């Protein structure tokens, strides 16, 4: 693609556009910078499929549609939606992981334009998503090769200004492209703050002329970049990477960016100065049952969520598999100095924020609640296969069903309705990460491995609506979202479905 390459000396670059008149309906992973996953409009009834499109032209090992066929182990990136209802869809185009963004009409799925990227995936086990984000200024960012980031403006139009930013400097990149293209990769989703500044994690595989080490980068709205290594940010030489797939979260006042770093197995949740990336806060991630280091897996796509009161929630894996592979949802004060009651599931989930108003009479004294996946894995420990989704109270407590730990109180839970053949009564897993909260309809829209999308009515704890999308598919976790016209979107079996009345 033709692009203007911008750096710290960005005098030749166009200025960042002003904030869009109408904010995007959905910006990326969990929608906003706090990862609340709140819908911009009331969702339509799940009555029919309006349109669908493939988001992977060559899925890993081909789609596996039955329990006997295996699993589709890939995390697909969340689509983004403009206020004018243009859906920006990250698409994987080859088995090797070539990517593009397809812009389509939210009304009928008609293709409008396409933007290719030369982004190269970092080393992985489960295939990670291509990092992409739509800012409040209506600028689309997508990761490129060598740790660079491409942008495109006016995404509702057939054409728009494009460019390329380099967080460590365009001159360095131009001089040694071969080195950087081979050894530097963005390895988390991109998150933007209210000003249009973007944040992401990156991995460095070998020494390089810029002395880059795996860490966290920031590019401001004019293309000026800065970065800090994971070990410097944590003040610990053992920290060698940002947690893969950990989308940065930004405090409501824009002053702090939260992200996790690890030594490849365990690590810290950090709060960094959002302008300088200097370390402000740090909390070691500890298993609340064993009191040993919790695990941070590259297969996870958990990211921090920030509550309306500034509390920070982040999912980890238990230290040794003793919690039925459920992991834990760790909870901290905004300055990370106080650890609060954990949730009983967390390993691969970005919890959504549910205001008390969406629970009706079921709400207690808390002003907000958390929606979480709540699987109990049939093939791990003493797991029963009673796979649920849950509303939990960050201020309430109960004894954990699976341990002696006191955990967040379950306000309500609900099982997937369909059993898995040959698994002793186990039901299908929920394959959602960051489920959309439809506040106006007091409900959650979630998808599952049984091939259905569900509307979970929080006032009745029931599924008044469900819609069959495809055959059952064992797969990794994806997102659901809602557009400005109320269209519901779910990713299942390498396909994006637009659903509604």
What is the average of the pLDDT values? 93
Distance between the termini: 39 Å
Instruction: Please tell me what the overall shape is.
Output: globular
Helix content: under 10%
Q: What is the number of beta strands?
A: 35
Structure description:
The protein is mainly β. The strands form 8 sheets. It has a 5-stranded mixed beta sheet, with no helix packed on it. Strands 11, 12, 13, 14 and 15 form a 5-stranded antiparallel beta sheet that branches. It is globular. It has 3 helices and 35 strands. Helices cover 4% and strands 36% of the residues.
Give the tags.
single chain; 501 residues; mainly beta; 5-stranded mixed sheet; 5-stranded antiparallel sheet; 3 helices; 35 strands; 4% helix; 36% strand; disordered N terminus
Summarize the structure.
The protein has 501 residues and is mainly β. Helices cover 4% and strands 36% of the residues.
Would you spell out the secondary-structure blueprint of this structure?
Layout lengths: L3 E3 L41 E7 L25 E2 L4 E7 L6 E7 L5 E7 L14 E3 L5 E4 L5 E4 L9 E4 L4 H6 L1 H7 E3 L4 E2 L5 E7 L10 E5 L5 E5 H5 L6 E2 L6 E2 L5 E7 L4 E7 L5 E6 L20 E2 L5 E5 L11 E5 L6 E5 L8 E4 L12 E7 L13 E12 L6 E10 L20 E3 L4 E5 L4 E6 L4 E7 L11 E3 L5 E5 L2 E6 L1
Parallel strand pairs: 1-10
Antiparallel strand pairs: 2-35, 3-4, 4-5, 5-6, 7-8, 8-9, 9-10, 11-13, 12-13, 13-14, 14-15, 16-18, 17-18, 18-19, 19-20, 21-22, 22-23, 23-24, 25-26, 26-27, 27-28, 29-30, 30-31, 31-32, 33-34, 34-35
């Amino acid at each position: 693609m033709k692009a203007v390459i911008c750096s710290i000396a960005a005098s030749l670059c166009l200025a960042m556009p002003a904030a869009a008149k109408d904010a995007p309906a959905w910006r990326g992973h969990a929608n906003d910078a706090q990862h609340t996953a709140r819908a911009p409009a009331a969702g339509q009834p799940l009555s029919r499929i309006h349109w669908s499109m493939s988001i992977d032209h060559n899925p890993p090992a081909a789609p596996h549609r039955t329990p006997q066929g295996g699993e589709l182990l890939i995390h697909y990136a969340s689509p983004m939606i403009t206020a004018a209802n243009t859906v920006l869809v990250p698409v994987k185009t080859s088995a090797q992981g070539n990517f593009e963004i397809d812009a389509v009409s939210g009304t009928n799925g008609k293709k409008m334009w396409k933007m290719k990227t030369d982004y190269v995936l970092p080393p992985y086990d489960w295939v990670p998503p291509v990092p992409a984000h739509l800012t409040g200024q209506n600028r689309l960012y997508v990761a490129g090769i060598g740790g660079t980031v491409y942008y495109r403006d006016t995404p509702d139009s057939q054409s728009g200004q494009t460019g390329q930013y380099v967080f460590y400097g365009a001159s360095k990149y131009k001089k040694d492209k071969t080195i950087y293209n081979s050894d530097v990769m963005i390895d988390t989703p991109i998150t933007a703050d209210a000003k249009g500044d973007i944040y992401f994690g990156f991995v460095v595989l070998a020494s390089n002329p810029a002395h880059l080490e795996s860490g966290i980068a920031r590019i401001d709205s004019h293309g000026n970049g800065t970065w800090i290594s994971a070990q410097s940010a944590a003040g610990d030489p053992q920290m060698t990477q940002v947690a893969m797939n950990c989308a940065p979260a930004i405090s409501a006042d824009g002053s702090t960016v939260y992200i996790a770093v690890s030594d490849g197995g365990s690590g810290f949740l950090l709060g960094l100065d959002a302008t300088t990336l200097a370390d402000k806060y740090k909390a070691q991630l500890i298993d609340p049952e064993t009191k040993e280091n919790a695990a941070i897996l590259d297969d996870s796509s958990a990211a921090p969520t920030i509550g309306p009161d500034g509390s920070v929630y982040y999912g980890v894996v238990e230290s040794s598999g003793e919690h039925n592979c459920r992991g834990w949802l760790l909870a901290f004060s905004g300055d990370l100095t106080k650890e609060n009651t954990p949730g009983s599931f967390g390993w691969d989930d970005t919890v959504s924020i549910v205001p008390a108003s969406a629970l009706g009479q079921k709400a207690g004294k808390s002003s907000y609640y958390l929606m979480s996946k709540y699987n109990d894995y049939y093939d791990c420990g003493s797991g029963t296969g009673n796979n649920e989704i849950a509303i939990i109270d960050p201020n309430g407590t109960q004894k954990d069903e699976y341990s002696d730990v006191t955990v967040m109180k379950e306000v309500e839970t609900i099982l997937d309705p369909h059993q898995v053949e040959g698994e002793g009564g186990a039901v299908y897993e929920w394959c959602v990460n960051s489920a959309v909260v439809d506040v106006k309809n007091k409900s959650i829209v979630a998808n599952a491995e049984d091939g259905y999308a569900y509307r979970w009515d929080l006032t009745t704890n029931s599924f008044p609506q469900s819609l069959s999308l495809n055959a059952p598919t064992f797969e990794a976790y994806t997102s659901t979202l809602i557009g400005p016209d109320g269209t519901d979107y779910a990713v299942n079996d390498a396909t994006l479905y637009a659903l509604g009345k």
